[in-house]
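Working notes for the structural subgroup meeting. M.R. asked for a predicted model of this chain before we commit to crystallization trials. I am recording the input and output together here so anyone reviewing the notebook later can reproduce the run.

Input as submitted:
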Amino acid sequence: MILQTGMRTDIPAFYTPWFLNRLDAGFVLVRSPYAPQNVTRYSLSPEVVDLIGFCTKNPRPMLAHLDRLRPYAGQHWSVTLTPYGRKIEPHVPPKDQVIADIRALSAALGPEAVAWRYDPILLDGTYTVERHLAEFSRMAAALEGAVEVCVISFLDLYRKVQRNFPEARAVPKPQRILLGREMARIAKAHGMAIKACGEGDELAPCGVDCTGCMTLATYEHALHAKLTPPPGTVHPSRKECACYLGGDIGAYDSCGHLCRYCYANSSPEAVRRSLRLHDPRSPFLLGGPRPGDVVREAKQQSWLDGQLCF
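Returned structure, recorded in token form:
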């Protein structure tokens, strides 16, 4: 199956020692964010985990430990690189460092296993359409040959985003179309395809792939193998999305980047509380067992069918 680590937090950036300890232990416990007494136990055995997916803004802490992931059939990394400064992304590493780390991941795993995420796209007095296109062009040139895909999306005004970033505004449709068309053109010039995340089919006429950014086809390409999931197990993560994200072992309110547009953090103080609960030796990312916990074993089996996929 597919094990996802990063739709709720950034494990490579902040929790690499914990993750390596879980690999040693062979399992992880995940508390439901909606019913906290419900706990899922995921096996981390390479016999049942075909691919581990990482979403991160800082892969560097994990780079020295990639050999620990060799027993798994594959990995897929989505690395976010945007033009925003400290006022919007307070604790994200310098852009040149992230570019160097994306290139290092690509050299180790192959460009098919690494995607660049340029999202979310937001507009204000500093980050205009012209600024985005200039920065995107510079980054695409720096990443040429290292990635095959760049994923874009526009700012979603979730309630958490509205609370932490009250001046943020949705990007109007004319600007979305202009950015999608020009980014697709720039990406193609650097040997990349643009995929849209959760944007429907609006950008398809602009040359943007709107079929999803973390689909089974994405994982098969990273694995160089065919996946055959049991009937009924593959479904979109949300109604706007065509992606399959698998079992997520992260936790909300635990990402220390504190990006103001983040949908996964309710507030900086909530993150600070979570960080105080983290124990690298615990089977849980945050805290430990609680009275009344109900632990269930995740249903896991390998989906690899042995057929090569190119």
